[in-house]
Each structure stands twice: as C-alpha cells, then as structure tokens.
Write a structure and sequence with these properties.
This protein has helices at about 10-15, 30-45, 60-65, 90-100; strands spanning about 1-5, 20-25, 50-55, 70-75, 80-85. The protein is of the alpha/beta class. It has a five-stranded mixed sheet with strand order 1-3-2-4-5, with helices on one face. Strand 4 and strand 5 (about 80-85) form a beta hairpin. The longest helix has 16 residues, at about 30-45.
C-alpha cells in the first residue's frame, strides 16, 4: 500500500515491517518515473509498505535525513534503515535490494 507521510506520522509509518520510503518532489521528472515503478511494486509485493514523502510538505524529515537531491530512497525493516539509495533506480534494482534485505 502506498501512503503519504507527514512530518508528524513518518515515524509511525516506518515502524513495522518492510517499508520503502521515497522522498520526492512533484515537479521532479525522475521522481515521476520512479512513481511508476513503485506502483508496479505495490501491485506485485503485498508485504511491502511504500511511503512517499513530498520534500516541500515535510521540511522537518527532509532536513533530518539530509535530503539534498531527489528521488531519494530509504529501505526500512521494523523501524531501522537498512539501506539508502540516492537517485533514480528501476523496479528491478528495488526488487534486488529487497531480496538482499529479506533473505
């Protein structure tokens, strides 16, 4: 399920299970391409929680995670960041990273 985070609910959304966080901007071309890949993964991987963070609407979390460029992905498991990927990736790269995390 894809959810949108706020500065207030971010910690709760990443606290349990496998979570992929996408820091994005609405006017970012690569972010729009990544959004398509995330929708594909959302349909394919029911165990994966996807959280999108609009950097313009969530300045506290954007600053906390030192987001200087977008898209920027964080892979969580049970509230802990296991991997960070800055820049554009495709669905296959995300699948590979999830396989590393899970297995």
């Amino acid at each position: 399920m894809i959810q949108f985070a706020t500065d207030e609910n971010y910690d709760e959304l990443v606290s349990e299970g496998v979570v992929l966080v996408d820091f994005f901007g609405v006017h970012c071309g690569p972010c729009k391409m990544l959004a398509s890949a995330l929708e594909e993964l959302d349909d394919e991987l029911p165990f994966l929680n996807i959280v999108k963070v609009d950097t313009d609407k969530c300045p506290v979390k954007t600053e906390q995670f030192h987001i200087n460029g977008i898209p920027d992905l964080f892979f969580y498991k049970d509230g802990k960041v296991l991997f960070h990927q800055a820049g554009m990736v495709d669905a296959d790269e995300i699948r590979d990273k999830l396989a590393e995390i899970l297995y």
